[in-house]
Every structure is written in C-alpha cells, then in structure tokens.
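Q: Hi! First time doing this. I have a protein sequence and I read that you can turn it into a structure. Is that right? Here it is:
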Amino acid sequence: MGDAPLTLTPIPAFDDNYLWLLDNGREALVVDPGDATPVAAALDARGLTLAGILLTHHHGDHVGGVDALRPRLQGPVYGPVHERLPEPVQRLQGGDRVTLLGLQFEVLDLPGHTAGHIAYYAAEVPGDDPLLFCGDTLFSAGCGRLFEGTPAQMHASLQSLAALPSGTRVCCAHEYTLSNLRFAREVDPDNAVLADYAAWCEARRAAGLPTLPARLGTETRINPFLRCAEPALQAAARRHAPLKLPAAPSPVDVFATLREWKNGFR
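A: Yes, that's right. Below is the predicted 3D structure, encoded as structure tokens:
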C-alpha cells in the first residue's frame, strides 16, 4: 500500500451531484463521473493523471461522462457486473477487490436503488479513516429511491453498510442532506443528535460548503432508514400508516413504510 497522502474532493455537477475525486498529488481516480467537464477541469487544475474510474450503477448522471474522459484515462473503468454501462468496463460483484492509488477496495453488492448497484469500500487508508463510495444507496439522513429493487433488498443493503466501522467516510453521490433531514426530523422529532446534526449541516450549506462525506457513526444515530428496528421509528411508521402495519412490524415493513412516506414528503 502506498503511503502518499490522499486528497478527497467532491466535485459538484448538475443540480446536486457530487463526482468524487481521490488523488495522491500525481494520479487520481473518479467515482461516477456523470459529467466529464468538471472532472477534466479538476484534473487539469492540479496536473493529475486519471488512473481509474469507479462506477456504482448505470444511471446517466453517474456514467454520462465516461466516454469523454477515456482519451485521458490511463487505467481501468470498473463497474457492476449486472448493469448496462458504456463499454469497455471491467465487471465487478460483491467480494471482488481492486487496487487503485495504493488502496484496496472491496466491492459490496447493494441491490435496491438499481438491481445491480455496487459500492467500493477501502478499509485501510494511510493516515485517515475508511472510505465508502456508495453511489445512490445511502445518503446522509436518507437513502435512494427503489427504482429496480425491493424494500427487503434495500433494507438488507443498508444494514450491510451500517455494519461497517463507525468512522467510515460515507461518500454519497448527491447533496440531498437538508431535504433528508427535514423528513428525518418529521419522523424522529425527539432525537437530540439529529437536531444538532441538522444545525451543523444547515451552517455548512449556508457557507457554501458540502455536508459530505458523512460519518457512518452519525448516520446510525440519525438516519431513519438505518434504524427501522428501533421502537421510535416503528412507532412513527405505525402513526403514518396505522392500517398497514401490525403492532410489532418487521424492520422491512417499517423501511417500506418510511420509504413510501419519503417519496411523497415535501
């Protein structure tokens, strides 16, 4: 493993995407480059070589810039085995491992948002905490919509992420945090940790700064979609859908209710 310090940069794109750039001062990798233009600008500004691209799923705002970046790419494009992606791509699935910038990334299967969604997890990062590039599965205080998967799949995917070390840096692909927090506080109004985190995030956004990466240890305390087995979240789901849920609903049923509730929340 290389010992060069690594710089992690969220590159804004579109309305609310982040294209994550990780570099060692010479080489860089980019995650889910839906737009090539801001990635190319960042590479040029720092004099970086593009050593690899990591793709989590097939949506256009995550893969749309891949082909335009290929002329400067000096390494592989990695992506999920079961998704339609701009070829050529080296295909990966859960349990696979890849090495870029001296970091070993473990591939995690995360069906739910899309059927073949994956994430990349680096447990050992020199001088820093673990890294998780999770695409649109886990957001700060929220989770992705279920376009292709089932509630049971998404709940299982989120629980697998919740089991990672609490210091893990959660690199989500969208700046949805404030809208997610409004919903989370509606569901869990008595959560003091949530209230403090919301105030911090509001100050960050007011200053023009990102709320990401999030910390997994915070998410397990404030994110309703990671806490569907807790009584407070079960009670909130039952209040919202009293005719749908039994007195002791399963965590998957709670998750499905919360996700449906969030879909229509404004």
